[in-house]
Amino acid sequence: RTSDSVVMKPDLAGRFGAEGLVRKLVRDLTGVLGVGAPGGSAEYPQVVRYERGQRFDLHEDAFAWEQVKQDNYQRHATLLVYLNDVDRGGVTRFPNLHLEIKPRCGQGLLFFPAFRDGYPDEPGPWRFQ
């Protein structure tokens, strides 16, 4: 990954007067997705910024089964929300599905990289970049 990112934890947001906003965002997202609170069965949202020429290489969002058994945690759902339009490049690719999503401001992309039992969907149609 050659981007900049920040994990939106309430205590960090509090430094900028946005703790309430982040708590509401986390509450609303976990409610809509039907997952638990961060630290349990969910993660805090991240904001990622890509400058011209930056990228996120092909990867899987699910954790390997060995890690899941050790940590007792799996990423079951991933929600990408695009915060701006991109005229050239910047697509999210799912090569195994022959699918490319061009970012549009306000558009969301939800996918499920693991099964309910925590086993990753491998070799993963959900490998993406």
- Helix percent reads 10-25%
Largest sheet: 2 strands, antiparallel
| Alpha-carbon distance between the two ends | 10 Å
Q: From N to C, what is the helix and strand string?
A: EHHEHEEEE
Strand content: 15-25%
- Report mean pLDDT, rounded to a whole number: 85
Oligomer: single chain
**So how many helices?**
3
Structural class: alpha+beta
Enumerate the spans where pLDDT stays under 50 for 5 or more consecutive residues: none
Major beta sheet, strand line-up: 1-2
- Extended strand count: 6
Query: What is the approximate shape?
Result: globular
The radius of gyration over CA amounts to: 15 Å
Task: Please tell me about this protein's structure.
The protein is of the alpha+beta class and 129 residues long. Helix content is 21%, strand content 17%. The chain contains three helices and six strands, in the order E-H-H-E-H-E-E-E-E. It has helices at residues 10-14, 19-33, 65-71; strands at 4-7, 46-49, 78-81, 92-94, 99-101, 108-111. The strands form three sheets. Strands 1-2 form a two-stranded antiparallel sheet.
Present the secondary structure layout.
Elements: E1 4-7, H1 10-14, H2 19-33, E2 46-49, H3 65-71, E3 78-81, E4 92-94, E5 99-101, E6 108-111
Antiparallel strand pairs: 1-2, 3-6, 4-5
Put the structure in a nutshell.
This protein has 129 residues and is of the alpha+beta class. It is 21% helix and 17% strand.
